[in-house]
């Protein structure tokens, strides 16, 4: 009885295909359910709406594959976005605002890296703590309000 309970079931090669199979099934089902699903306008809209999440997911994939973890990514995205939007609203151009947001991300990432590598603190603890710090700073800077007075050239065109 003891040996049967200790048996570990290893996933087969076909089990690894289930996420892809469900994606294909979902894609086919939505195509049948709505004639608008496969339109260029809808697919473009989906691509725009998921672009930020996809970029973050690519970066997080590299972190996870290397055996690490970063819990502060979402908070960092919010902080850098507020910083970039405030820079844009204050009159800086799009290039400078993007550079400020990217530089902010590099700076916070560097702080995380230094705490982990130099001080030897566990990445889970560093990024969990940094998530709280960054969320708090974002709330203080934004005062919980959206950024207004963005240039007209930054607005969505239809």
- Strand residue percentage: under 5%
Order of helices and strands: HHHHHH
**Main beta sheet, described?**
none
Morphology call: flat
Sequence stretches where pLDDT stays below 50 over 5 or more residues: none
Gyration radius, in Å: 22 Å
Describe the model:
This protein has a domain at 69-150. The protein is an all-alpha fold and 158 residues long. The chain has 6 helices and no strands. The relative contact order is 0.09. The chain has helices at 2-5, 18-33, 40-65, 73-89, 94-117, 123-142. Helix 4 packs parallel to helix 6.
Key words describing this protein structure:
158 residues
SSE layout and pairing:
Blueprint (H helix, E strand, L loop, with lengths): L1 H4 L12 H16 L6 H26 L7 H17 L4 H24 L5 H20 L16
Helix pairs in contact: 4-5, 4-6
Please sum up the structure shown:
With 158 residues, the protein is mainly alpha-helical. 68% of the residues lie in helices and 0% in strands. The protein has helices at 2-5, 18-33, 40-65, 73-89, 94-117, 123-142.
